[in-house]
Specification:
Distance between the termini: 10 Å
CATH topology of the largest domain: Glutamine Phosphoribosylpyrophosphate, subunit 1, domain 1
Structural class: alpha/beta
Shape: globular
Number of strands: 24
Bound molecules: fructose -6-phosphate
CATH class of the largest domain: Alpha Beta
Number of domains: 3
Strand order of the largest sheet: 3-2-4-1-10-9-11-14
CATH architecture of the largest domain: 4-Layer Sandwich
Helix content: 25-40%
Strand content: 15-25%
Mean pLDDT: 94
Low-confidence stretches: none
């Protein structure tokens, strides 16, 4: 869950590492540190508790000179956030420094062994065993020492290592945790993801499991953990260097909400351009015969991506008529799921690195399911372990609260569903044309919704001091209610529940009172009348209601206290449009409350621990 960066070249390592870490701060931000091999051949380590700004300040007060270094931003797993537990960790003689992302599962056993052998532990972390192991095997060759250490390690790691004895070498390795090597001229980089090095290069090697890189200023040698050479083509990062900047917005989350129309256009590009023509999904990697013989679809994911999976389940049954379910990835393995022949797993993940989702993917694959992933980060672990991958093409998402990835996940899944419905003849030509037409209109409708931001802000002003909120939806918009509530709670810390409007009378209605506001998603469609009934039940108990309704609706303004308007579209694609005002509502409420929107407390963007 942490972020690592390393640099070797001619620039000051602290400057490059700090700038790279800034891009990775979404991975964790409870402490940070940097180790630099100084020009005089000594190793200097600077660590702080708290955010990167504290590290920048520490380095300003006590500058460190050197052109080789590794840095880290942490999200605690073993040991509380403290200076001693933060990375880099060093060997007892202070000559080897190591940064780590991942979890060493057998660390307790290794720690006992190493303590017996005379190594002294100062932190409570699992990481410290790695640096002592490297030290134990070190005999002048850092790469070989790590190779030997790796044999003793169980669990996940992406590591960057430097040694004061060798100011011209950095070693990096990976097992399960993401790692890239950025290729420069006279300089090279390592990082947990491409975004961290994009400022300096668009060429990277994506490192695979059980591989390592031995890096100098002018060379990068890739091998497996046995030392066998690995041939790899560099990957060209497809987005411009400034794509990860805020571009005039106050927060990344706000910028990413506003990127949705463009991102939707890019997601549709080359896949759907004419409602009369079939959808083209390169990367899906499924023949028509395979699609026809599907007997079941299982969506699995975590958090926001799971909500997109819930929309997917609904669409898959309703349109493609394939029995479907959606499972929380963290729960899937516990019940030892039965996987029938002809099962397709659709794994949804923005980062492509979420540990729970990766474990669920492996479980389903091992049990014989075909796996197609719907992923944002290209070449991420989930993408690479899938049989097919349909990228959502959202560009980098930096804000911890997922926004554009959510709507793009739904759009991508809708493309897959429409393609399946077409191939299986499950929907009429007319229905398919209408659905494709509706999808093509979404970027424009998203733009219209963003132009109504001031209206949403006015609603936010009315409710931002409420301590509690209830989000209600039905059918295809039940996940929208769940996602709306998640967005609100994670960035504003207001307690919010996303609930089936039909279930409300079986319990949650007891919560309704003037201090709890309800957001009711009541767009015209199959469940519209029932939603109106639910709004009336809340109004009868003095609960304020914000309705989400299609433009032109005359009933909802009569029932609800406030309305968030969305352009009319077929109900089945409405989860894409209803999401946008709810993202803006959460954003403005959190902003009015002065919350740290891009880095909410206790959260990290990519959860690489189970
Ligand atoms: C909420 C949020 C999380 C993620 C979840 C899965 O705003 O971002 O709930 O959706 O951690 O992450 P990915 O999609 O990277 O697998």
């Amino acid at each position: 869950m942490c972020g690592i960066v390393g640099y070797i070249g001619e620039r000051q390592a602290t400057e490059v590492c700090l700038a790279g870490l800034k891009r990775l701060e979404y991975r964790g931000y409870d402490s940070a540190g940097i180790a630099v091999v100084q020009d005089d051949g000594t190793l200097e380590v600077t660590k702080v508790v708290g955010k990167l700004a504290n590290l920048a300040q520490a380095l300003e007060e006590q500058p460190v000179d050197g052109t080789l270094g590794v840095g880290h931003t942490r999200w605690a797993t073993h040991g509380k956030p403290s200076k001693i537990n933060s990375h880099p960790h060093t060997s007892n003689d202070g000559r080897i420094a190591l940064v780590h992302n991942g979890i060493i599962e057998n660390y307790a056993e290794l720690r006992d062994q190493l303590t017996e052998e005379g190594f002294e532990f100062v932190s409570e972390t699992d990481t410290e065993v790695i640096v002592h192991l490297v030290d134990k095997y070190y005999d002048g060759d850092l790469a070989e020492a790590f190779r030997m250490a790796a044999r003793d390690l169980e669990g996940a790691f992406a590591v960057g290592i430097v040694c004061a004895d060798n100011p011209d070498q950095m070693v990096a390795a990976r097992r399960f945790s993401p790692l890239v090597v950025g290729i420069g001229e006279g300089e090279n980089f390592i990082a947990s993801d491409m975004g961290a090095v994009r400022e300096w290069t668009d060429q990277v090697y994506v490192i695979d499991d059980d591989e390592m890189a031995v890096i100098t200023r002018d060379s990068i040698e890739l091998t497996d953990l046995e030392g066998n050479p690995v041939e790899r083509e560099p990957y060209t990062i497809p987005w411009p260097a400034d794509a990860a900047q805020k571009g005039g917005h106050k927060h990344f989350m706000h910028k990413e909400i506003h990127e949705q129309p463009r991102a939707m256009r890019e997601c549709l590009l080359g896949r759907l351009s004419d409602p009369e023509k079939s959808i083209n999904l390169e990367g899906l990697n499924m023949s028509e015969q395979e699609i026809q013989s599907l007997r079941k679809v299982v969506f699995t994911a975590c958090g926001t991506a799971y909500h997109a999976g819930l929309v997917g389940r609904f669409l898959m049954e309703k349109l493609a008529r394939i029995p479907s379910e959606a499972d929380l990835a963290a729960e899937l393995r516990a019940r030892d799921p039965v996987v029938l022949d002809g099962t397709l797993a659709i794994v949804v993940s923005q980062s492509g690195e979420t540990a729970d989702t990766l474990v669920a993917l492996r479980e389903l694959k091992e049990k014989g399911a075909k796996v197609v992933s719907v992923v944002n980060v290209v070449d991420s672990s989930i993408a690479r372990e899938s049989d097919g991958v349909v990228y959502i093409q959202a560009g980098p998402e930096i804000g911890v609260a997922s926004t554009k990835a959510y709507t793009l996940q739904i759009l991508t899944i809708a493309l897959i569903v429409a393609h399946f419905a077409d191939v299986r003849g499950a929907a009429s030509e007319h229905e398919l044309i209408e659905l494709r037409r509706a999808m093509l209109k979404l970027p424009e409708q998203a733009q219209e919704l963003l132009e109504r931001e001031e209206d949403v802000k006015r609603v936010a002003e009315k409710y931002y001091e409420s301590p509690n909120a209830l989000y209600l939806g039905r059918g295809v918009n039940l996940p929208s209610a769940m996602e709306g509530a998640l967005k609100l709670k994670e960035i504003s810390y207001i307690h919010a529940e996303g609930y089936s409007a039909g279930e409300m009378k079986h319990g949650p209605i007891a919560l309704v009172e003037p201090n709890l506001f309800t957001v009711a998603i009541a767009v015209k469609g199959d469940v519209y009348d029932k939603m109106i009934g639910n709004i009336q039940e809340i109004k009868a108990r003095s609960g304020p209601v914000i309705g989400v309704a299609f433009d032109g609706d005359t009933e909802i303004p009569r029932q609800a206290d406030d309305v968030l308007w969305v352009p009319e579209c077929p109900e089945l694609v409405s989860p894409v449009t209803t999401a946008i005002p709810l993202q803006l509502l959460s954003y403005h409420i959190a902003d009015m409350l002065g919350r740290e929107i891009d880095q909410p407390r206790n959260l990290a963007k990519t959860v690489t621990v189970e």
